[in-house]
Structures are given as structure tokens and as C-alpha cells.
């Protein structure tokens, strides 16, 4: 249950509290990346629910509930492995999607500076601590945050790559930790189920 709640909190933080939240606008958002986060939050909710039934099964010494708990953990474990492989394969697509969003906003600003686009591109620059797509474009009057480190932060496309890569690494680490917890849960549930059965056979 605690692992499930931790996964929910982690997924919601990445979606609404991290740098990626700034890329969620009314018309454009990295759906590929966010879809993975929604799956992560859903898996956390499922783990919390399954954990509750596992606690009930252990408290009531019910082989039926413990068997159902074990079966659900097998399904969750398979889903985690599948999601991990999907995230690894889809990392390049997620990076390209977010870069395309920035480039579209950048092009809109260059065509018509000011207004809502000006505020949007500034939010991206502030979140990523970058400005433009190369150092030569700092002369074009882009809305850039103060005190950013140049030239490291001059290319927002590179910064987007770094941010997405780091976030997906975090998701991978969390996935491995959850998978380990799931394996221990399956082992302990089967051991407890066997103990309950042996105890009943002796009586």
C-alpha cells in the first residue's frame, strides 16, 4: 500500500509539479510522456487497492484472498516489465515530441512576438533555464530569464533532451524498486498461504 501511494505521489509530481508541467498548454502537450505518467498513477492506485486486500487476507488468514493477492501481483509485475520496456523504446519519441512542441512555440513567437506566445515561451525558458535554439539567436530579443548560464543553456533542444532523459531514468528507478517490492510480496504471500494451509491440516 505504501509503495502504491508513493508511486501515485511520484507520478502526480512529475505531471503537475515538475518541469514537464510547463509543457502542458491548452493546445499542445507531450501526450506520449504524460500517457506513461497516467499509467504509472493507475498502477499505483491498483497497487494500493491490491495491498488492502492482501492485508485483509493476511488478517483473516484467508487462502482465497491471499491467492487473489498473489495473482494480482503477478499481473502488476508483468505490467511493470511491459511499461519499462515501452518507456525504454519510446524515450526517443518522447524527446522528439517535446522538442517539437518547443519548436512550434518558438516559430509562433518569431512570427508574432508578444501576447500569450511571449508568456508561454518565457515559461519554457524559465523552467528549462535555457534560451533559444543556439547561441546566435540571443540577438533576436527572445524573452529569456535572468542569470542563466551561457553557453550551456543556450540550446533549449539539448536541455529538453537532458530533462526528459533524467525524468525517464527516475521512472525506471521507481519501476525497478516497485518490481522488487512486488516480487517480495509474491514470495511472502505464497509462504503465508502455505503456512495457513499447513496449520489447518495439522488441526
TrEMBL record:
It is a multi-pass membrane protein. InterPro entries: Tetraspanin/Peripherin, Tetraspanin_animals, Tetraspanin_EC2_sf. It is found in: Membrane. Residues 1-21 form the signal peptide. It comes from the Eukaryota. PANTHER family: TETRASPANIN (PTHR19282), TETRASPANIN-2 (PTHR19282:SF155). This is Tetraspanin. It comes from Rhynochetos jubatus (kagu). The gene is Tspan2.
